[in-house]
Structures are given as C-alpha cells and as structure tokens.
Amino acid sequence: MSRPITPAGIRPPFARYSHAVEVPAGSRLVVCSGQLGIGPDDAVPPTVEGQAELCFANIRAILAAAGMDLSHIIRINAFVTGREHLKGYMAVRDRIVADPPPASTLMIVSGFSRPEFLVEVEVIAAGPA
Predict the structure, then answer these.
(1) Ordered domains of the chain (ranges, CATH)
(2) What is the rounded CA–CA span in Å between residue 62 and residue 48?
(3) Exposure check for the chain: N or C terminus, fewer CB within 10 A?
(4) What are the transmembrane regions (predicted)?
C-alpha cells in the first residue's frame, strides 16, 4: 500500500528507516499522540528497552482500536533523554516495525513530564479508507 522512497542519489539511511513514505490517495490516516513507557498500572520500567516496549504496546492498542496494526505505521517520531538510550530504543523499534520500515526521526531531549521517563514515541499510520 504505502511506498518507501529512498533515492539512490543521497546517502542511505543511518539505520532501519526509509527516507520517505508515499501514501496513496484515498488512504485513511491515524495520528497518534506521543506514548510514554508506562503501563495501565502506572508502572514504569527502569530501562529504555522496557519503556520502548510499552510505548509500542500502547501504539499497537491505539491502532487496533482504529482497525489498523503496526504494519500501517508510515512515520515514527521518537525522543530519548540521552545518547546512551539510542541503541536500546532502536533495537526495540527495529524488531517491531514492519518491512519496508517507516520514515523515522529520533531526537535527544532534555526530559519529559516525569524524570523516570526515558523515551516517548509518536506515530502516523495509513490504511485503507
């Protein structure tokens, strides 16, 4: 359905993502707010990997409520609180996202609403109308 765009004339992506994703006309878009690594019981795992797992579990639930799944993700914006968290977050992301991978941006930020949060993930998904 969606088409990844990675032109030959520019440097290939640094990691497992597409430079762009084209969404066909008539698709339905779902825009998810940023999801933090917190469970329904308010538990927050101490590691970026554990938190990233919960971020994507929350996203999976949101997309399911819209009749979509993780394979419909066309764009990811992720935020971590330090360089030391990049590798752990990317390992979870790379295991979870479908092929071809979505467009993706990963930024280092100074923090979130609570100091124990290490990662936040927001996505855009596209599916059939």
Answers:
(1) 15-127 (3.30.1330.40)
(2) 21
(3) C
(4) none
Q: How far is CA 11 from CA 5, 8, 16, 93, in A?
A: 13, 8, 13, 21
Q: Token pair of 90, please?
A: 């990317």
Condensed to tens digits (0 to 9), the pLDDT of residues 49-74 reads 999 999 999 999 999 999 999 999 99
- Encoding tokens for residue 26? 């008539």
C-alpha to C-alpha distance for 110 and 115, rounded to whole angstroms: 10
Q: What is the 3-state secondary structure (H, E, C) of 59-107?
A: HHHHHHHCCCCHHHEEEEEEEECCHHHHHHHHHHHHHHCCCCCCEEEEE
Query: Which amino acid belongs to residue 90?
Result: M
Nearest in space to 15 (alpha carbons), one of 82, 118, 101, 81: 101
Q: For residue 92, is pLDDT > 90?
A: yes
CA distance 129 to 29: 9
**CA–CA dist 119, 122 (Å, integer):** 10
Residues 6+ apart with CB under 8 A from 39: 54
